[in-house]
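Exam revision sheet. Question 4 asks you to relate a sequence to its structure. Input first:
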Amino acid sequence: MEHDKDFFRYLKDKALHTRKETLNIHGISQETRIASSLSCVEIFTVLYYGKILNFKSSEPGWENRDRFIISKGHGAISLYPVLADTGYFDALELANVGKEGSFLGGIPDYIIPGFETTNGSLGHGLGVACGISLALKRKKRKEKVFVLMGDGELYEGSVWEAVMFAGRHGLDNLTLILDNNKICMLDYCKNILDLEPLDKKFGVFGWNTLTVDGHDLTGLYEALSGLKENETGRPGVLIANTVKGKGVKSLENDPLCHIKNLNEAQIKEAIEGLK
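Answer key, structure tokens:
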């Protein structure tokens, strides 16, 4: 589907808003993983504001919705402002993240309108998505299933069991989006356990693979639009090459950014530096 410059300018504005709000949330709740959440901002932007996902915010359990499984739960705080902005819950609730009585925690769970599952423990999201995808196919349903996963999560053996399962059962209604920011908890992934070349590994297990700049809104939109129309009999994976801590210079390319917090002054400086 072709769109004009105004459409992508709109996506850029929404991505900027989401990144700023994510930083504000981190200032409210220091338990949030800020670097992990910043790398997937453009992915969320395209999925929701680009209308890749079919959803009805006034009815989160709408039968005809596409399912979106957030497997990297710790890095999904940037979805909060998107869900608030699209009407899943009141934006005023963003000021209460991590506070007693709020349904918005440092790690999201299914009580939050718009979240399908709880995925604080890594390695389970893709398996759950495979089950949903298989059930939808057997019921001859048209809804699609999307999964967001971090690259460090690929170290979990259950992920590769799910990869094999999806390929074997031809789950072409399933799209995995890999937030490939190349840094896990304590170092660069290549220094912990180098899994490259990822595209070839997925290909061996029967997946269609695409690679894109995970901060390029146009490239993301075109890739995800194509994968959603997948009818090849093979599941699809989008390897989105991203920058952990994107938009905050002190976090970008820092091998320990996963476990670092920003103070009030750093957050203010980061927000003022965003364009």
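Marking note for examiners. The mean pLDDT is 95.
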